Amino acid sequence: SQTIHQWPATLVQPVGSPLSLECTVEGTSNPNLYWYRQAAGRGLQLLFYSIGIDQISSEVPQNLSASRPQDRQFILSSKKLLLSDSGFYLCAWSPRTPGEAFFGQGTRLTVV
Amino acid sequence: GENVEQHPSTLSVQEGDSAVIKCTYSDSASNYFPWYKQELGKRPQLIIDIRSNVGEKKDQRIAVTLNKTAKHFSLHITETQPEDSAVYFCAASSPNTNAGKSTFGDGTTLTVKP
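Structure tokens for the assembled complex are given below, as produced in the milestone run.
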């Protein structure tokens, strides 16, 4: 069966520090991968999605970047965090044909 | 690309009443329409989905209807319970757009009052 792992679950980082959130998927190949951010009480803001290795689309200009060095690995990064980067970050995968999206447990990032 | 609009953004009902959440989509080629429930602090999880070859699907107290002509679909929850309180997201995906990429609505916060 397919599983998705996202870590860490919580993170407190100072302003100006770097960020690296990692997400890996098991049990499937060639998935679509997504990074979402969710502010408190708000919807899912799509940050990046990827349909293949090194194929990343950015939905919103921002202080973040994403990479997909392997088929089932998706990394969200920042060189210098801003206060506004605080939020709940969710990684997700879906199959290449339309189907259910599966979400990781999420990372609650607080920038102080 | 696909655009999904979801209404209402907040919904408050009395326990035992029904709740209806509606979504519209823009891409007529979209053929998969899931609904996700997100409880506070947790990840969204699929509760029901429908594909474009059917008009209605039901699972106990939850049902989804799809009108392909009008390009809208709805979530119906009957006999609501306090544990139904959560944020609900609709989504749509097309086989022709970005390998089936899911596009989500903005969510509906449902509160069921005991």
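The radius of gyration of chain B is 14 Å. The longest strand of chain B covers residues 86-93. Further analysis is deferred to the final report.
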